[in-house]
Amino acid sequence: MTEQPRDEVDQHVARWATFWEDNPEYAPEVEGALTRMKNILRRERRADAAAFPDGGFTLEDFRTLHALMVQPYPTEATPAQLAEAANVTRAAMTSRLDRLARAELITREVEPQDRRRVVVRPTAAGRAAWERHIHAGMAREQQILSALSAAELKQLNALLRKVILSFDR
After folding, report:
1. pLDDT of 59-68, one tens digit each?
2. C-alpha angle with apex 96: 69 to 103, nearest 5 degrees?
3. Burial, 105: exposed, middle or buried (Cβ in 10 Å; 0-12, 13-18, 19+)?
4. pLDDT recorded at residue 69
């Protein structure tokens, strides 16, 4: 049997295994799996941040448009719905929406039936910016997992799905 190549996480796990050698609660395979998942997500976040270098259109701008585009009704949402979807405060969302409105990537309209309700909609330019960046993001994600075959990706998804489903038990 051929030994698998080692990565930096193997060193991390080995270091902790030595530290916790007298503790039966330490699970090196769990530590390794979770540390690798965190490493993958950290690399994805860095690649995403590097994709928006100029400040003219930021990662936050993209994430706000993305929250708007993936709402149950992808043509509109309230600022409160967007804040919840983007996991930011309402004040932070207001700042983001101000920026997108100045760039003419969204519109904000008061609903005639309920003047307290503001509806945010993407403009054609906003939709185009979102689409351009979503495709570039898909390419970055595929690159990150390019070491896996299609069958391995299916297997990885099945295993991760099993973990996610266990949360509700």
Report:
1. 999 999 999 9
2. 80
3. buried
4. 92
What is the token pair recorded at 50?
Answer: 């590097």
Confidence (pLDDT) at 115: 83
Other CB atoms within a 10 A radius of the CB of residue 63 amount to 18
- Distance, CA of 4 to CA of 13 (rounded, Å): 15
Question: Which of 121, 124, 137 has its CA nearest to residue 62?
Answer: 137
Helices then strands, counting H and E runs in the chain, come out as 7, 2
DSSP state of 53: -
Phi, psi of 70 (to 5 degrees): -105, 10
- Tell me the two tokens of residue 165: 């489903």
User: What is the per-residue pLDDT for 86?
Assistant: 93
pLDDT over 70 at 1, yes or no: no
CA–CA gap between residue 43 and residue 45 (Å, rounded): 5
CA distance 37 to 92: 29
Residue 74's pLDDT band (cuts 50, 70, 90): low
The full set of domains in the chain, from first to last, is: 55-137 (1.10.10.10)
